[in-house]
Amino acid sequence: MRGRNDRKLRHYGNIYRQARRNRILRTVGGTVFGAIALALLGWFLYPPVRDLILNTSVEEASSVVQTVSERPAAPQESTREPQETHEPAVPAQLREEPAEPTHGIFAPAALAADRGAFAQLLQTASQGNTDLVLVEAKGSDGVVCFRSENETALEAGTVWSAAFSAEQVAAEIRAAGMKPAARIWAFRDPLLSAERRDLAVLYGNTEARWLDNAANQGGKSWLNPCSEEAQQYLIDLAVELTNAGFEEIVVTALQFPTGMSIERANYGVTGFSRSEVLSDFVRRLTVQVEAAGGRALANVPADSLPVGKDEKAAAALERTNDAMYGGSPDALAGRQAFLTLGVSTDQTAIRTYLTQHSDTEWTLFLPSYAMDGTAITAASAVGAFGSDWSYILYHPRGTYLLT
Fold this sequence. Notes:
Blueprint: H1 2-70, E1 103-107, H2 109-113, H3 115-126, E2 132-138, E3 144-146, H4 151-156, E4 159-164, H5 166-175, E5 179-185, H6 190-195, E6 202-203, H7 228-243, E7 248-252, E8 265-266, H8 274-291, E9 295-301, H9 311-325, E10 336-340, H10 347-356, E11 361-367, H11 378-381, E12 390-394
Parallel strand pairs: 1-2, 1-12, 2-5, 3-4, 5-7, 7-9, 9-10, 10-11, 11-12
Antiparallel strand pairs: 6-8
C-alpha cells in the first residue's frame, strides 16, 4: 500500500514539475516575443518619432537663433584714447546743426493778463519776424503773476489777484505760431522775504531782515540765496510754468544782494562760496526744468561784464561782481545764456565780447525804446548785432514797432 502511494506522489510531483516548466517556458517565450514585437514596432515607428524630435529641436534652435539675432550687438570697447571733452564724440554727419536764431518780444504781466491787449500783441507779432514771446511770470517785486498752485506762494499771498492762466497764455502763444517763454526773478524778492523771515537775508546776529537801503528810503529785503527752501521755491515755480506749456524759462536776479551795510548781511551759513552757491542753484534749476521738458536760461546783465571800461572802472566792477556773484556772472551762463542789455550799454564792446565767447549760445535781451521811453523799430534795435543772433525785444509797456 505504501509503495503504491509513493508511486502516486512521484507521479503527481512529475506532473507539477512539468507544469511549472511549461509556465516558465510560456513566460520566457512571451517575454521574448514581446521584445521582438516591440523591436519590430520601434523599427517602423522610429523614423517619424526621430523626425518629430529632430524637427522640434530645430524649431527651438531656430527660435533661439532668431531671438539672439534680433538683439542689438554688444558695444565694442573703444581702443582710442578718451577725448578731453564732456560731450560724447558724435560722427560729423550725425551732429545737429546749430539752432536757428530766435527772434522774440517781451510781454509784461499786465499785458498778458489783458485778454484783448494780449491777443492784439500776438496778432502784431505774428505779422513780423517773431517766433517767441517771453512773458513776465514773477516780477522783481516778488509778485507771482500767473495762477500758481505753489503752496508757499499761496500761503504767503504772493500770487497776483489779477493773475493770468499760464496754460491759457502758453496755448495762445503756440496757437499764434510762436514759442512761449516765461521770465522769473529769483532772489530779488521783497514780497516773500517780507512774509517769510526764515527765507530772508537777516541783519547781523539779529532776527531783523537785512534791507538794501534805509527803510524810509525804500529799502527792500531779499530772499536768502543760501536757503535751500528759497531755492526750491523758485525751482518749483519754474517747473510749474514748464508743465503749463512754457518751453523756455529765463531766470534773472541770480545774485547775492547789494546795497547799504552789505557786510552785515547774514545768510545763516559761514565759509561758503558765492559762485558755488549760485552755480549749484542754476545746475539744480536746469536739471529739473529739463526733466519737465523745458529749457532754462540764466540771465547775465551786460553791464556786469568787464568790457568797454577803463582800469579804474574795471577794478570797481570786479569788486561789485565778487560781492554779487563771487566772480564774473558769465560763469553762470554755461552753454546757453540770456544777456540783458540796458539802454546805455556799449553795444560795440558787447558785440566784441560775444564774438570772443562764441561757444555760448547767447540770447540778447534788447531794449526797443529810446532814453525817453519812446518805442523804436525792431530793425534799429538789432542793427548793432544783426539778425544772426537770437534776440528778444523788450519794452516796459509791450509797445513794439516790428514792421
